[in-house]
Amino acid sequence: MKDTESGALHNLKNNETKTYEELGLKAGVEIHQQLLTDRKLFCRCPAGIYTEDHDGEVLRHMRPTLSELGEYDGTALMEFKTKKQVLYLLHRDSVCTYEMDDTPPFLVNQQALDIAIEIALLLGCTIIDEMHVARKQYLDGSIPTGFQRTAIVGVGGSLPYNGRTIGIRQVNLEEDACREVNDCGHTITFRTDRLGMPLGEVITEAEMHTPEDVAGVIEQLGRLMRVTGKIRRGIGSVRQDVNVSITGGTRVEIKGVPQIPWVAPLVHNEAWRQKALLELREELRRRGISSGTLRYEIHKLSEVFRQSRYPPLRKAVENGETIRGIKICGIRGLLNFPVQPGITFADEIAGRVRVIACLDTPPILINTDDFPKYDGQERELTAIRETFHLGIPDAVLICHGSDRDTNTAVDEIRLRIADAIEGVPNETRQAFSNGTTDFERILPGPDRMYPDTDHPPVKITEYRVRRILRRVPEKPWVRGDSYLRMGVSEHIVKEVAESPRATFFDRAVRDLDLGSKLIAELLVGKMKALRRSGIPVEAITDEKLFDFFSEMARGGVYREGSESILTTMAWNPDLSVKEILEKLDMTPWSEEAFRDLVADVLSRHPDEGGKNPCSHDKFVRIVMGEVMREVRGRFSGRGAADLVREIMEEE
Amino acid sequence: MNTSDTLKGYKGSAKAKLKEMGVRVWSDVVVRTAKGEFKGVILPRSETEDDRHVVLKLHSGYNVGVRVDTIQSIEELGYKEAHYKIPERDFPQDAAKPNVTLLGTGGTIASRLDYRTGAVIPAFTPGELYGAVPELADICNLKTIKLYGVFSENMGPEQYVATARAIEKEIEAGVDGIVIGHGTDTMHHTSAILSFMVQNSPVPIVLVGSQRSSDRPSSDAALNLINAVRSAAYGDIAEVVVCMFGPTSDEYDLLHRGTRVRKMHSSYRSTFRTIGDIPLAMVYPDRFTYLTSDYNMRRKDRLVQVDTAFEEKVAIVYYYPNMQPDIIESLIDHQYKGIVIAGTGLGHVNKPLYKPLKKAIDSGISVVMTVQTLWGYVQMYVYDTGRDLLDIGVIPLENMLPETAYMKLCWVLGHTTEHEKVREMMLTPINHETTEREPHNGYLILQGGIPEVDTFVSSLRK
Lengths: 651, 462
Hints:
The structure holds 2 protein chains of 2 kinds. By secondary structure, chain A is α+β, with helices and mostly antiparallel strands. Chain A is built from 20 helices and 23 strands. In chain A, strands 1, 4, 6, 7, 8, 11, 12, 13, 20, 21 and 22 form an 11-stranded mixed sheet that branches. In chain A, strands 2-3-10-9 form a 4-stranded mixed sheet, with no helix packed on it. In chain A, α4 (211-226) runs antiparallel to α5, α11 (476-486) packs antiparallel against α12 (490-498) and α16 (562-571) packs across α17 (577-584). Residues 1-14 of chain A have low confidence and may be disordered. Helices cover 26% and strands 23% of the residues of chain B. Chain B is built from 12 helices and 23 strands. In chain B, the strands form 6 sheets. In chain B, strands 9-6-10-12-13-14-17-18 form an 8-stranded mixed sheet, sandwiched between helices. In chain B, strands 4-3-2-1-5 form a 5-stranded antiparallel sheet. Chain B has a 4-stranded parallel sheet with strand order 20-21-22-23, sandwiched between helices. In chain B, α4 (157-172) crosses α5, α5 runs parallel beside α10 and α7 packs parallel to α8. The model of chain B has no long low-confidence stretch (mean pLDDT 92). Classes of the chains: A alpha+beta, B alpha/beta. At the A-B interface, β2, β4, β5, β6 and β7 of A face β3, β4 and α12 of B.
């Protein structure tokens, strides 16, 4: 990869929106969010157990099935060309025979379906009357069956964003796939723990027109789903696919973007990649190259590199590998054409060869446009020119690997050049943190969807929808406005409204005489501080929290004690609030007991009281500190300060 | 076309609504409902589902059911009927390759999926099979004969006889091997009866199926078929065998002897196991590993003996504590000719059954004893119960599997009902349905959870 400059890579500091508009940028997102359930979607395995070791292995291959027209789906064929062995790592704690594809699915997890319906209702979707489970083919091995079980739950919703409305095409309930461990040569290895966990998928219409909007909409959707309190949080719990196209380009899917900050640069670069590929197409046409006139020639070059001073290829020959080259007529210079920051068209071709031909020892490809510099390169270049009778406008791409893989590779190079004549190929691309992407697979068509004959249709009754509708939380932005009116401090309104405890907050405000301000501060301020110091406050159920708050409202415990009480609750999820209060001895003190303590503390400082009026305040603080250390929240703080002063005055 | 075709699977109110709206299955429509609008193609509905929903395939490929009573209107935009067709490619012929005949009984060992309905269309002709599993052409010249199309559980005497006859005909015509595509549920019943009906075969007769249907990318069907066809074309074992996955991984198939094999798991790929003995061979896509030399070798002659005698009035009685005599009485009343008991332990039933069993035997019914433990021998001398049963005239069948005993008794009673003759034929093995010795590795059910077993198993690909 080289540092490159081209018309395709403007630095878009100014007037960005207009530029995207000129490009005709259109983007939509698909958000995959893990749902917080006890078990997986189609079996009884626990959800959310991740392991880094395994106690079993299964080896499989994926074979394409014929499509409706008796042809193989593009993706399917590509995956089959790779002839991959797929190795699954199993751990008894997280998988059963369902994940191994050795047991048919059990009936769908009703808890997961309820959550998916709740999310669909939050987005204003129409809930489907009868859910039909479909199989969506994936031949990359990421799911041992070769397909993902998925079903539509709701359609036709909307999301308010920045003063306009983004259409929500559908909300699906589906199973999560395996985690890839490594992909080396002809073997790809997956860990199966995540496989089968329920995912809610939200698909928007392609109605975003700037990279920032794409990121903003993803953020907004995340905010909305979080208020249900029924989604998983943390690394890997949410992944988004971003679909991007520009005028004249093609829908390209950027798959599995793990973090929102990655989104805008990825969308930006993809828009310009498509523009670059369209410019490349123009250049190819200008040179008179069409799919009908594309001329190429293939030769083995192992002999040429046998004595080479270029280590990777000499080593390849020594290892008995084949070195193969393909001449493409008329494309000289175009292999260096920049398509992404630091990435040329040749790199783009290499990405496809890497995946499809399973060639992954660098350099995957070398070419005559940018031949490696080494001692004696001229000798080999001359030999290549002679072998191919290379004309001035031509270029040669060279790969190394097994005989079969290099055959696949040169064929794939030819196909990629043919695609370039058409423009932007339909692809799924993988995302990198630097904002660039690489080929992952050819984008599958709707042909890969078919009904799951193993699972009966599931009726979603009106009663069920009504029941869920009753518990659907207010949207965070609506909620925020009403909290402000309630008197919740402005700086934490948003956080309370988007918190998974928002519904709890409403209930506490309604049912307890504590005041919304205090509840908000405890829920957001206090709990967040505790979480940051590593205390698992998520383990505290809403019910227990409510018990604790009720106790506080009754005066049975002071807010000053909340830190130690919440900490103990978090670490002891099995104990009731009553047991915890007893354990910590948090019974509030009487004023008498408090007076006795103050007297006791003062008696420890017989000489200091009142001698020096300037230091009186300091003395009060010292006494207060000692008193409060012993009280530990068992006497209300503000009352305590006044009382200490009062007692000291009395003394 | 009548409405049962145009409204496939719909009934009651759903059917009435579709009729009222003037649309049919495969209509590309816009459905307007009280809740919103749906665009898609109307799919056939499964007959077992209710009459209150219409199924649509949306343009995204997903299917949804729309409640009939919410439908306000349906507008037909077009019509997109699905066509069931498997691509055919000419199966290449090569005089240097062996000739294999594939007999179809109805299992979908190779098939294609109809993406609109999800229906599985079996691929069966050589051309279709070549389209689905092109590797077959590297192995042999393939001929296919579709005998019938039934689910495995509907296989019966009529099919057994026809299959045996078809095998005879193919062998006489000079074929190098036979493959039988079969559903897996009763594959071991068929393999047992064919072992008795087709004796002294000069070529392999290989039953094959799949545990994951071949419309799935992860199916075991293609590898099973490739390995079965290789076993038929090049394998040395001229017996009725079952060829199915050894482990659940895509690694090798096992060849199991037809009389000693049993389906042991409702869904695993590696469901077939040889019971009380070891399998005959492992089959990899590029080699055979024979595990024993105790088998009938392939021959050049065509001296096969086919004997399709079959008595249908035979029952298996799976004994359970508290079984009442009326169960046996009922079989006597219905003129059964044979009863296979799957007894407890070494071959026992409770005392109240002695009387009806004696009555059965006295009235000419052959009663034979097998064990429901599957592994191990009937040994009725150990306890008094056993001796009493022997006195009545119950025939102990050594280590014959209950399903094999059932098939053999049907076959034997097709020849004779004479008690001593039945006893002699039942106890004279035709092909290892009883064996004199049980090797110690013939019973290996490793107990998971035990540390050393788990350690060993984790070192294998399952």
